[in-house]
Amino acid sequence: NSSSITFNKTLLKHAAVSQPGFLGLKSNVKSSELVSSRRKRVNKNKKKNWNRHSDIHDVEDFLEDIRHQERTTGGLLSEKPDDSLFFLDVEAEPVKAEKGKRRVQRPLRIDLILQHDSMVPAPKNVTAYQQPNAKKLRRIAQRAEQLAAKGVLPRRQRHLLSRRPAEKTVKKAEANNNPDRDFYAMWGEEKVTDSADPWYLQQTGKKLVQRPEKLNQKPSVLPAVEVIAPGGSYNPDFLSHQALLQEAHDVEVQKQKQEDKLQRQLAFRKEDRATEVQTIISAVAACLYEDEDEAAAPNEDEADSALGAIAVAEKKTERQRKKEKAEKMKTQQQQASRRQTERQQQLFQLRSIKSSIKQQELQTKARQMKRKARQEAQKALPRRLGKLKYAQDLEVQLSDELAASLRQLKPEGSVLKDRFKSLQKRNLIEPRERAKFKRRLKVKYVEKRAFRQIT
Amino acid sequence: MGGTQKKKFERGSATNYITRNRARKKLQLSLPDFRRLCILKGIYPHEPKHKKKVNKGSTAPRTFYLLKDIRFLLHEPIVAKFREYKIFVRKLRKAYGKTEWSAVERLKENKPTYKLDHIIKERYPSFIDALRDIDDALCMCFLFSTFARTGKCHVQTIQLCRRLTVEWMNYVIASRSLRKVFVSIKGMYYQAEVMGQLITWLVPYQFSHDHPTDVDYRVMATFTELYTTLLGFVNFRLYHSLNLVYPPKVTGEKRDVLSVQKLAALSASLARVVSTAEEDDAQLDAFPTEEKVEAREKEQMQLETQKKIFEGLKFFLNREVPRESLAFVIRSFGGEVSWDRSVCIGSTYEATDETITHQIVDRPNVDKSYINRYYIQPQWVYDCVNAKVLLPVEDYFVGVTLPPHLSPFVEEKDGDYVPPEKLKIMALQRGEKPGDDDDDEEEENDDDDDDEEDEEENEDDEDEAEEKNLKEMEKQKSQGKSLQVKVTPGKMKMENPVRLEQEEKAEEKRLAIMMMKKKEKYLYDKIMFGKKRKIREANKLAAKRKAFDDTEKAKKKKTKN
């Protein structure tokens, strides 16, 4: 009843307050509202105006009040039992709170902020707990459980168990120089690529590129291993050893000749250098002959000029021209007749002509043979394939270096070097030298300060 | 004028060649990689005939390759491997630099490698091609197997080379293909005949190791890489042609470390795939006899006997002789060989074995405790092999000055100088015993010299006696007296059929020469003059040698006196 009374009261209040121009006690009313811009009469039958011009703030206040009660106390106060609202205070006088250091710990502000500020619990999100097809899945799980209890495995597991274990086919790549590598039959067994259709191979990209024919020719006619001359035996026959020494000697002589030639070409000639005596003589002679020359020279010049003047002479006369022509004809005739007689006489010289032709032919043939022989010899020589020229060194042991027995033999030269040179000789690689260390910038030597004081 | 004019160096040889740097850039490889690729594929630089044309007017010495070859190189799958390797090196270096050891391990495990099998198949399409090129391969493999395993070049390469050379030597022993041996100052030259191909290779001495600095090791290592692969495949094929198990096994043993070492010792016999009761020597079919077939049969018989010169002989090698070489040679000709147990594994009998026939010694003096065996120097074995006949052992006793070791690779033509030692050997080959005079001359004893002088005197005496007789008879006849000659039963003069043949031939030759025309005779005289010149030179050399021998003898006499 009290609530209904208050409700009626508030209704009346509302009616009064809602009148325009009502001035309440708390007059914090805005000036715009005093001069209200509202229409005096509004048609409340239109749907548009049900929302705009209906006044439900009293209902709203009531509802707000109810919500407030629920927020703060967890339910309507009117429906709460008395015990929760009131209590009888039967306790004695409270004992004085102990003063001292024990103060009540206030809760942290952050905890306060994080607590719920209303007693109304948050609504539960039903969709979060919803599972599509929950019933169906539940049924399936139950069925699986039943089957598992019986001992029947699902199909997927059965397949997994029946599958063969995976074979590890990861082959570690074997290096080419592995000492335990194995070899297989390479020649005499046809691979797929040999016997398959060439069109198929070409289309699938499996066709092997053909090796050019020229690569199958050997770059040199020399044999791979050249045996040393018989004088290179560890216990050689006297004459063959001498022959080998002679060869080595020849090579050295050639080298020496080259050096001497260079020396000679660069040497200072004695004739170029004039000795002191000669310089004096030549100076004196120069002075002596100078006067004579001066006297002689001008006369000659005059004579020459005079002759020159006469030489620019008159034109040729008719007679002279005729004479010249006649002479010319004569000489021509003579020559023609001479040629004819020569030709006639050549008939009788046939034999000697034949022999001379034969000689020439022989010569040309000899020259051809020589050239061919030289070309063949050239083939055996190493080609010039790079910057450096090929240099061969002979291995030979001098007579006093020859060993008395196989045990005391000291090997000459190294097979490694011999093989390297042989590869160069056969034009397989170009002659190479060890790269020298070239400095781009010059090194400057500076003494340390300490040393400078000493020295 | 204008566009239709031909420009220089745009066609012909100038476009067929390409310089090395250009080729390298075309392939996008570094210079060492490019070199390695060229060596592996067998692509060599060429010298053009007209250098100026190719070099666009300059004569600077450049290395040229054929453009076709370089284009062919572009299709090689190994080029990709080289690039992968370069990247691998870069990653590895980075990982090392950042000290990420797990990354280093992982990278090293997955190191990119390449195989050369397809290159071998491409370069040597048939087995005979491969056999022709095997000389070089053998030399390189033997050379590398003697290197010290210091790590300068891959130790794996050295091991592989050793294995392959051991396999090759075992094959030669099993097939009895060794023909010639030459011991030189550089190393030992061997020649074997395999499937009709003559293969020569050079083996360095074990104790020579001066590593020269001007040899490019990388190039040699690349060649060896290729050649080891080639030799491996060739070995496989050769072993299968003899029905031997490959990789080789000792008969009746499993293939483990010990047996591998035994194989290396060259004293064990190899296991066969199909055990044969008898040796399958191919018998020549019996064709109707023709001259050539007969000759070939003869040759075949000779060859068979030559292959077995050491059969039945038992050798023992002292410590100071080159064991591997001698074991190889002796076993290739059917002999049995052994050595001291402490030298190497695989010795089959000890020095105390009574049945040893020859002991190879190289010391100046040795105590000869066993009577029934010869103590000889190692050159005897090599000389016997070259002469294809067992030479007399006396020349090779311990302490004796050896005869010179002649080269079997020298073929002397008619008229050339032949050293007297070789003549002796040829005589031995023919089956004649060396003349007594020669023997007497060789021995250096005064007694023998005296004997020789006595013999000469005897001969002279005989001649003189004959002459005297004749003179007397003539005198008697001139004096008109009847000779006191009796009719004695005639002695049959044994006609030497060989000599008769020779005389007939000489007669025919003389007749033919008389019948020649002038021009032909002129040519013939010229040829004979040339030949006689050779003979004259040979005689000169022989005289020189005799002079030298005499001086040597005189010296020795002096020292003895």
TrEMBL record, chain A:
A Pfam cross-reference name: Nop53
GO CC annotation, single: nucleolus
Biological processes per GO annotation: ribosomal large subunit assembly; rRNA processing
GO molecular function, one term: 5S rRNA binding
Function (record text): May play a role in ribosome biogenesis.
Family: Belongs to the NOP53 family.
Name of this protein: Ribosome biogenesis protein NOP53
TrEMBL record, chain B:
Compositionally skewed regions (Acidic residues) per UniProt: 435-466
Primary localisation category: nucleus
Region Disordered, residue ranges: 429-503
TM ranges: none
Family to which the UniProt record says this protein belongs: Belongs to the pescadillo family.
Function: Component of the PeBoW complex, which is required for maturation of 28S and 5.8S ribosomal RNAs and formation of the 60S ribosome.
Stated name of the protein: Pescadillo homolog
Organism phylogeny: Eukaryota, Metazoa, Chordata, Craniata, Vertebrata
Gene that encodes the chain: PES1
